[in-house]
């Protein structure tokens, strides 16, 4: 289960109000995209949900449990970073297994989970390679594999494709939405790319200056944007 609720979540850095106050409901199994221009607070919001930053005020609930005192590990969420966060000296197998080893899982459990993730991600033939001997898309899949083996309540993606070239980005979009259809796990996906948002999301959250401008299905935003900012950003004719 991965239902996430934000109640008046606020984040200040010094005296800068980066997130003045966000209310948001994410249903279990939803693919939600946070989209907005660079610097609008997307990463900060994701890091607050992950527990990598503390809220200044407000509440984050996961499956109706208040996360105020929950460490990132306790929240049961997996962040997927850009592929350059892989360990270059480790094999694909060990990169995917790393978090499980840290968590003290048995060798047999690790092997089963890594092989299962590799199968889902088409990496079975690459487990002995090091990241340097993989394509950009394969490296990104390894980064996703690390998240899958933790069996998270939700996946949190922060602009995972921004390092890849345009053609590969289109491919990886399909792979990630395909993965969502297969796993049916809640996914929050952060991007500044409107096309990614429109093509991938069940639900889009449009952010500007740390505020939610609109929440809705891609077609709802397109046909019925709440304001000029959303219309302009989504490229709606209105
Ligand atoms: P986005 O991911 O949408 O590009 P960020 O969440 O990274 O935006 O940043 C939102 C704003 O918060 C920016 O103005 C950024 O400079 C500021 N910010 C982010 N992290 C910190 C920090 N640790 N200390 C101070 N300011 C920060
Ligand atoms: Mg960011």
Outline:
The chain has 238 residues and is an alpha/beta fold.
Bound molecules: adenosine-5'-diphosphate, magnesium ion
> What portion of residues is helical?
25-40%
Q: Quickly give the structural class.
A: alpha/beta
Shape: globular
Oligomer: single chain
Order of strands, main sheet, comes to 6-7-8-3-9-10
Query: How many β strands by DSSP?
Result: 10
* CA-based gyration radius: 18 Å
Number of helices: 9
Q: Report how far apart the termini are.
A: 37 Å
Order of helices and strands: EEEHEEHEHHHEHEHEEHH
The average pLDDT is 94
Low-confidence stretches: none
Give a description of the structure.
With 238 residues, this protein is α/β, with parallel strands linked by helices. 37% of the residues lie in helices and 26% in strands. It contains 9 helices and 10 strands. The chain has helices at 42-50, 72-75, 92-102, 107-120, 136-148, 166-183, 194-200, 218-223, 228-234; strands at residues 4-13, 16-26, 31-35, 57-62, 65-66, 77-80, 154-158, 186-191, 203-208, 211-216. A 6-stranded mixed beta sheet has the order 6-7-8-3-9-10, with helices on both faces. Strands 2-1-4-5 form a 4-stranded antiparallel beta sheet, with helices on one face. Helix 3 crosses helix 4 (107-120) and helix 3 runs parallel beside helix 5 (136-148). It starts with a strand and ends with a helix. The model has no long low-confidence stretch (mean pLDDT 94). The protein binds adenosine-5'-diphosphate (ADP) and magnesium ion.
Key descriptive features of the protein:
alpha/beta, ATP hydrolysis activity, binds magnesium ion, globular, 238 residues, Glycerol-3-phosphate ABC transporter ATPase, single chain, 4-stranded antiparallel sheet, 9 helices, binds adenosine-5'-diphosphate
